[in-house]
């Protein structure tokens, strides 16, 4: 059986989660809550923001998901999702034809 986890940021179901310190450890976040994120989201966050930005204003999932800078990433995820479900539909239609 495959265990499925849910990413707290993009809400996708994934096979592996990583722990993100909402306030980076080097900014004194050792005792702050962590969030369980998929690898893609986690990489994206650290590519977009510095630890200082994360500690100063993006220390909750809510704040992160409403930030302007991360919106294009969510749009991309949505497009990818639509794309893959369209392909699935096409595949189904193809299968039905035969
Ligand atoms: Zn995610
Ligand atoms: Zn992190």
Task: Explain what you see.
The protein has helices spanning 39-48, 51-57, 61-65, 71-97, and strands spanning 5-6, 13-14, 18-21, 34-37. The chain is an alpha+beta fold. One zinc ion is lined by residues 20-21, 42, 46.
Task: Specify the overall morphology.
Answer: elongated
- Count of alpha/pi helices: 4
Number of strands: 4
Tell me about the largest β-sheet: 2 strands, antiparallel
Ligand species? zinc ion
What is the spatial order of strands in the main beta sheet?
1-2
Percent of residues in helices comes to: 40-55%
Radius of gyration of CA atoms, rounded to a whole number: 17 Å
**Straight-line distance between termini:** 32 Å
Runs in which pLDDT lies below 50 for 5 or more consecutive residues are none
Instruction: Give the DSSP E fraction (strand runs of 2 or more residues).
Output: 5-15%
What is the mean pLDDT?
91
- Structural class call reads alpha+beta
Strand-and-helix sequence, N→C?
EEEEHHHH
Summarize the structure.
The chain contains 4 helices and 4 strands.
């Amino acid at each position: 059986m495959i265990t499925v986890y849910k990413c707290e940021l993009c809400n996708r179901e994934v096979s592996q989660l990583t722990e993100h310190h909402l306030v980076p450890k080097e900014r004194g976040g050792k005792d702050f809550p962590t969030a369980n994120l998929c690898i893609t989201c986690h990489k994206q966050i650290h590519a977009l923001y510095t630890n200082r930005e994360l500690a100063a204003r993006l220390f909750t999932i809510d704040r992160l998901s409403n930030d302007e800078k991360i919106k294009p990433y969510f749009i991309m995820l949505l497009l990818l999702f639509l794309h893959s479900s369209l392909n699935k539909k096409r595949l189904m239609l193809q299968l039905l034809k035969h």
